[in-house]
Amino acid sequence: MVTSPVKNNMIEDSNNIYKINPIINIKNLHFWYPDGTYALRGINLQVFDGDFIAIVGKNGSGKTTLAKIIAGLLKPKKGSVILFGKNLLHISRKEHIKLVGYSFQNPDHQLFCESVREELSFGPKNLHLNKKEIEMRVKEVAKMLDLEEYLDEHPFFLSKGLRLRVAVESILTMRPKVIIVDEPTTGQDWMQSVELMNLLKQLNSEGKTIIFLTHHMRYVAEFADRCIVMLDGRKIMDVPTRDAFSRFDCLELSYAKPPPVSLLTYKLFGVVALNMDEAVEIIKKQVIPNTSYR
Ligand SMILES: Nc1ncnc2c1ncn2[C@@H]1O[C@H](COP(=O)(O)OP(=O)(O)O)[C@@H](O)[C@H]1O
Ligand SMILES: [Mg+2]
Fold first, then answer.
1. Which candidate, 96, 122, 100, 101, places its Cα nearest to that of 111?
2. Overall pTM surpassing 0.90 (yes/no)
3. Among residues 129, 172, 194, 291, which one has the fewest Cβ atoms lying within 10 Å of its Cβ?
4. Domains of the chain, earliest start first
5. Protein residues with C-beta less than 5 angstroms from the ion ligand 2
């Protein structure tokens, strides 16, 4: 194999791009809770700079536990997690929140300040940034999420959708390299979910690594480059998103159904469409040349 020099953590040959040097490297990770519930059973996972990953799986499959370990909120019981080249156990809390931001499945477990402004300032204050820098970051993030008008509101009086956005905002003010959002589309309507997912897409295009946990396959198809399926504390699939939607056996095991549009084009033509635009193109190519219509 003839390879070009390493560039942006990738090696290219004539056919493929191989990513090297993962920013998160997890080996044989096990975790159980104090009551003896076994949540993770030997997870191996590599995350690369710039990845946009969806982790899917039915309730109780271990998604949140895995995310909390990467975010430093739970400690591995067995196995290792290397973050940016350093063992997670040797990373201080202050250092950790600059590397990984985690937005909780339930925003009410994350928001506890009297106003949205205080909520957004909390992280940067813990990083001991000066007042001017904190104000600048709060303004910048509030503008990005269109939440400026709510800065002086009490988070408690906001809708669930807005509280979720505040929870995501409050991790962005720490400018983490990796952003993990747990169930970003639960409890939100389609438009709110798409807005939030579009924000994650924008952050990804600006260089952030994104991991989102969900059981809504429509968002996986539309947004993720890579799809990881978990079942009973194990990773049972880790492939590019398009490939995931033709592996019905694995998806069925975890009760994850491909979106109807992917199912339709796959069953009719053996090709997976990830969204409506792709489906239209596939159908046009397959059907129109053979019809008697004009
Ligand atoms: N605090 C806890 N104490 C005991 N068991 C827990 C706790 N949190 C989660 N679990 C259990 O760990 C397993 C994995 O849960 P979780 O990581 O929340 O999965 P998911 O996010 O995929 O729904 C489940 O069996 C769940 O009941
Ligand atoms: Mg969960």
1. 122
2. no
3. 291
4. 49-73+91-254 (3.40.50.300), 257-287 (no CATH)
5. 63-64, 105
63 CB burial (10 A radius; 0-12, 13-18, 19+)? buried
CA atoms of 193 and 113, how far apart (whole Å): 24
pLDDT value, residue 181: 94
Give the separation between CA 31 and CA 19, rounded to whole angstroms.
28
Mean pLDDT, rounded, of the chain: 86
DSSP state of 124: H
The per-residue pLDDT for range 87-142, each reduced to its tens digit, is 999 999 889 989 999 988 777 777 778 888 998 898 888 888 899 999 999 988 88
Distance 265 CA to ligand 2 centre (A): 31
Contact 31/39 with Cβ under 8 angstroms? yes
Tell me if 61 sits within 8 A of 231, measured CB to CB: yes
Residue 253: strand, helix, or coil: helix
- Going by pLDDT thresholds of 50, 70 and 90, the confidence category of residue 262 is confident
Name the residue among 104, 74, 67 with its Cα closest to residue 89.
74
Helix (H, G, I), strand (E, B) or coil at 95: helix
**Cβ atoms 269, 256 nearer than 8 A:** no
Euclidean distance between CA atoms 231 and 222, whole angstroms: 22
Which residue in the block uniquely carries the two structure tokens 């997870």? Answer: 43
Compute, in angstroms, the gap from residue 215 CA to the centroid of ligand 1: 15
Amino acid 245 reads F
Return the sign of the alpha-carbon dihedral for residues 285, 288, 291, 294. Answer: negative
- Is the C-beta atom of 59 inside 6 A of ligand 1? yes
61 lines ligand 1 (CB under 6 A): yes
